[in-house]
Amino acid sequence: MKVKVRVPATSANIGPGFDSLGIAFNLYNIFEFTEKENGISFSGCAKKYQNEHNICYEAYKRVADAAGKNVGGLHISFSCNVPVARGLGSSAALIAAGAVAANEILDCHFSKLQLLNICAPMEGHADNLAPALLGGFTASMLHEGKVYTVKYRISERLHFCALIPDFEVKTATARSVLPQTYSRADAVYNLSHSAILIKALETGNIPLLIPALTDRLHQPYRESLIQDYDKAKEAAKLSGAPVFFISGSGSTCMCISDKDVSKLLRENLKELPNNWQVYPLSVDFRGASIIKHRKKFIK
Ligand code: HSE
Question: Which of 147, 155, 248, 275 is the most exposed place for a label (fewest CB within 10 A)?
Fold first, then answer.
């Protein structure tokens, strides 16, 4: 059997919702999974990832193991548009693809929420994986070993734009600069801002999004990892996008406005080093999905 899977890019945290909130966007990776007699092989990804530790394959295997099925031989081909180590959920996209493909090919009949629970330990937080699998705007929590995820509405009036520089920020590095503990004041700050943020995103209330998207748990510590963060923020503001935040653990920054500001933003970012690319994005509401399915006789 051969299946083609499409998985959206995701932006995690959304300001104060550290390790919890996430949104799926219409920038996609496409994966093709083909059963074969034995062994695993890959195409379209760097040589160093062409082995059994490939996280797309690991997710495939995790789902197979959870269903008590044999993995068998498999070829995975990758066609990736989501840039790596830029805070747009490229790892979660690989995991979601492996999970959804195994579910289909091996007839596992897991729901997406079950797939999320099977694979969430691979990243340790479900803020990217939940929207990658389910689409839309999600909040996730880990409670007594189980992942709970809910979907929120998000206003169609909001225009999102990803600002992607040419340098990577590894999640491990971006987590290593965070404190181990926080004050009560910081915890209250983020809890209250997250609660208001959800309503502001639902209603498309830009004046409310500006304060609601600030946080004290991760962004203040990570800004210095993103070269020209302040200048990019200023360029977004000048272009008419007053809402600005770090996408996931960076390096991508995301801005929100009430109209498409991408053209102006490109102009205003042109002078900065690091070749900042501007991608106007819409919310993806489907999440990981099978886009082609072909039964194939294997000798
Ligand atoms: N919530 C994660 C972080 C997202 O900010 O570290 C990146 O995996």
Answer: 275
Ligand 1 pocket check for 32: Cβ under 6 Å: no
| DSSP, res 225 | G
Question: What pLDDT digit, counting tens, does each position of 106-163 carry?
Answer: 999 999 999 999 999 999 999 999 999 999 999 999 999 999 999 999 999 999 999 9
Secondary element (H or E) of residue 198: helix 184-203
Q: Which of 133, 171, 131, 139 is nearest to 23 (CA)?
A: 131
Using CA atoms, how far apart are residues 253 and 248, in angstroms rounded to an integer? Answer: 9
Closest-CA residue, ligand 1 atom 5, reads 249
Q: Which two tokens stand for residue 116?
A: 């999320």
Q: Model pTM greater than 0.85?
A: yes
Q: Which atom of ligand 1 is nearest to the CA of 87?
A: 7
**Which of ligand 1's atoms lies nearest the C-alpha of 127?**
1
Instruction: Give me 281's structure tokens.
Output: 């994005």
Burial of 191 (0-12, 13-18, 19+ CB in 10 A): exposed
**CA–CA gap between residue 197 and residue 120 (Å, rounded):** 24
191-223 pLDDT per residue, tens: 999 999 999 999 999 999 999 999 999 999 999
